[in-house]
Amino acid sequence: MARAFNFSPGPAALPETVLEQARRELLEWRGERASVIEISHRGKAFMAIAEAAERDLRELMAIPANYRVLFLQGGATQHFAQIPMNIARGRKADYVLTGAWGEKAAKEAKSLAEVRIAASSAADGYFGIPPRDGWDLDPEAAYVHVTPNETIGGVEFHDTPDVGDVPLVADMSSNILSRPIDVSRYGIIYAGAQKNIGPSGLVIVIIRDDLLERIPKDLPAIFSYAAHAKEGSMLNTPNTFAWYLAGLVFQWLKAEGGVAAMAARNAAKAALLYDYIDASGWYTNPVERASRSRMNVPFRLADAALDDVFVKEAEAAGLMALKGHRSVGGMRASIYNAMPIAGVEALVAFMRDFAARHG
Predict the structure, then answer these.
(1) Catalytic residue among 29, 94, 195, 323
(2) Which of 70, 281, 298, 317 lies 20 to 30 Å from 114 when distance is taken between CA atoms?
(3) Range of the domain at 286
(4) The CATH number of the domain where 285 resides is what?
């Protein structure tokens, strides 16, 4: 079997060592005489998996003790609605839009809160981040929502914006664990697992304790973060396999040197690809340099008529899932934590050869 370098934006590549371990353990997990998929989520064996996963994530992200870590379902999209439902029902909520996923989050919130667009780079094609001094923030807002990395457009915040005393809520689906952050600067961090954490079907929610106290008591328990926190994310049957795999990824991250090591590796991968694109004279990246994502690198060919040829030849060369999102076209290379530097080197070599043959 020949595995390709997988540049998919999600579900994305997982570390091969994690997949190999999961394969070894799939039929019978550590003396349980059953697969990890089959054991009870309330049994001692799975509870040990769950506790280790949370402990490792807390260590990796230096999550303070006054934050709860929830392993939930629904993907980030469900939480576009669940967050205002929990902490902003009938109140104002500020949204800073830097791409399509921020737009979707704001749209879903509108039936639950008074959504204010505090800043947006839509008029500029979502090729950058609105300057912080131009944000129209309401000090009475329930929260300020940002999307630190826009998967489709390849725009990323490289720092944590100061929003005063209003809780900062961040959809970190596509850049969580890619570099160190100060969790204490956020009220809520949420992330779909299928990019840097594990398989799809799991979402991590990191929420500050005081925000749990805001949650309406009449909210159905299944939608209440407080109810899930009280039950240790076991209010209903969780996605046990995704939780288990996430735990393996956290162990892999620790063995690789943690989030700081990932940050250095990701910076090197991104620099290699962006430097070639900028110097090529044949490929272009539309995002302003200060806002370029280290996780998702969109690029365009000099001749868009060659897009399908590029994708086909890349796949034949062992480079898969490079076609850009249908809303923006072109190409996109997603280079999350699990993408090795060798994959980016192979991509640059292919791009150079393709340009030489078709340029």
Answers:
(1) 195
(2) 70
(3) 258-358
(4) 3.90.1150.10
Q: What are 76's two structure tokens?
A: 């980030």
- From the list 56, 94, 101, 243, the catalytic residue is 101
Query: Is residue 6 assigned to a domain?
Result: no
130-189 confidence digits (pLDDT tens): 999 999 999 999 999 999 999 999 999 999 999 999 999 999 999 999 999 999 999 999
CA separation for the pair 47, 283 (Å, rounded): 49
pLDDT, tens digit (0-9, with 9 covering 90-100), for 175-231: 999 999 999 999 999 999 999 999 999 999 999 999 999 999 999 999 999 999 999
Rg (CA), the chain: 21
32 shares a domain with 129: yes
Q: Is 195 a catalytic residue?
A: yes
Q: Which tokens in the block code for residue 358?
A: 């078709």
1 pLDDT band, cuts 50/70/90, is low
Strand, coil or helix: 162: coil
Alpha helices in 3-99 (DSSP H): 16-25, 44-61, 75-87
Residues 142 and 107 in one domain: yes
The verdict on whether 159 is a catalytic residue reads: no
Q: Which of 171, 243, 252, 269 is catalytic?
A: 171
Q: Is residue 4 a part of any domain in this protein?
A: no
Report yes or no: 168 and 211 within 8 Å, Cβ to Cβ: no
Residue 2 in this model has a pLDDT that exceeds 90: no
Q: Which residue has the tokens 């699990």?
A: 338
The verdict on 160 and 218 lying in the same domain is yes
Give the domain CATH number at 67.
3.40.640.10
Q: Enter the pTM of the model.
A: 0.97
